[in-house]
Fold this sequence. Notes:
By secondary structure, this protein is of the alpha+beta class. It has one domain (about 5-179): Jelly Rolls (Sandwich), CATH 2.60.120. Helices cover about 20% and strands about 35% of the residues. The chain is built from 4 helices and 11 strands; from the N terminus they run E-E-H-E-H-E-H-E-E-E-E-E-E-E-H. The strands form 2 sheets. Strands 1, 2, 3, 4, 6, 7, 8, 9 and 10 form a 9-stranded antiparallel sheet that branches. Strand 6 and strand 7 form a beta hairpin. The radius of gyration is 16 Å and the shape is globular. Keywords: Amino-acid biosynthesis, Cytoplasm, Dioxygenase, Iron, Metal-binding, Methionine biosynthesis, Nickel, Nucleus, Oxidoreductase.
Amino acid sequence: MVEAWYMDESQEDQRAPHRQRPNRSVSLEELRRLGVVYRRLDADNYETDPCLKEIRRAENYSWMDIVTIHKDKLPNYEEKIKTFYEEHLHLDDEIRYILEGSGYFDVRDKDDKWIRISMEKGDMITLPAGIYHRFTLDENNYVKAMRLFVGEPVWTAYNRPADDFPARKQYMKFLAEEA
């Protein structure tokens, strides 16, 4: 099951857990109020999983690929890791399904505080368009993930500040309605 918590302010290794002391857990309901959707699937059988097939049909996830993030598998690994960890948003939802390994997605809450979401094999997350977020590997330094898209894939990240994009304005409106 996914675990999430508020991050400390430490500038140490981004791959460390960065838990506050005492730990401040974040529930799935709190993540949902931020527009973050979590699902647990059978990653051992992702190629034939009827649940994944139904999610893809229902959400119109027509395109997918698989990416492996590891120093031996990803060209320009160090540069990519730095890019993934820069705070940014997308104009479309970001959907990631962890097939092997683990890592962290960090998202901003309504008060602009970082929440760290620990992702491992079998976890699927949808981050809404317009949410500020970032990704990093954890201390295991390996993840294999499926990326899902509606239509043609768009990987464009807009680093903060990106508050003038319609996706960001729509997301802020969503947060206000959730409050």
